[in-house]
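Anyone opening a protein record will find just a pair of labelled lines. A complete record is shown below as an example.
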Amino acid sequence: MEDLQSAAQKPADSFGWWFVLRGREVLLDADGGIPCGASPLVPAVGRVQRLGELDGLPCYAVDLPGDAAAPAGAAFVDPKPQLDRLTQRAGSMLARALEIAEWDRSHRFCGACGAPTVQRGAAIVRVCTNEACRREHFPRVSPVVIVAVERGDEILLGRSHHFPPGLYSVLAGFVDAGESAEEAAHREIFEETRLQIGDLRYFASQPWPFPHSLMLGYQARYVSGEIVCAPDEIEDAAFFRFDRLPSAFPLRATVAHWLIRDFCRRHGRNWPDGA
């Protein structure tokens, strides 16, 4: 990416949505929203990418240095809680901004030969400058399976060591090299709880840019086994009835939340659309 004065990008005076990043933080304007306008809040220098369109307006990601100060009236904040405040489309655009900025930061040099890389125009690809290499580096995503295991009117929920107090969620894990998503779902549930599952079915997916995951949501049926938690993976797991769930849930804008909500609604628990 070039800076804001780049002739290839030329967005500095463009009217649109501005996803301004400082490391893993995003800039919110005085109203607590994503800045929209002719880049009035964007500092003079930043690395910029065109992301697409939102509500008919172009979207830009601007990646600022770690010591950049927020303009007057604005603030840099943790992007995760903002996902619950944004529309699903705006949240997806924020995820795209975070992932592309992370890709750009981590691919300034070629992973094959170590030579510098450059971005050609507006294309989301960095090319090695070594004429003997010329390898192209595209953004990568890391697939993660996340599985709601059901046993009648109960759902399997677990706690990771880093969760806030009281929070439980459905279980998840990365897909290994050479493994299908379905194989990963069976393996992860067994590794973390020693349970066997069946009737695995796809539910929904979601980008999760921390730093570059793609969450693949599944529903499954408990088949056999007693819960034995893998201590290096989770600190607790149990089956919970739909009307006796833990007090804290994952963010509403996550596929984990959607899976739990869908389970409860299918078992007659009232779940407001905004919850």
Notes: The two ends are 39 Å apart (CA to CA). The longest strand covers residues 196-208. Residues 142-266 form a domain with the Nucleoside Triphosphate Pyrophosphohydrolase fold (CATH 3.90.79.10).
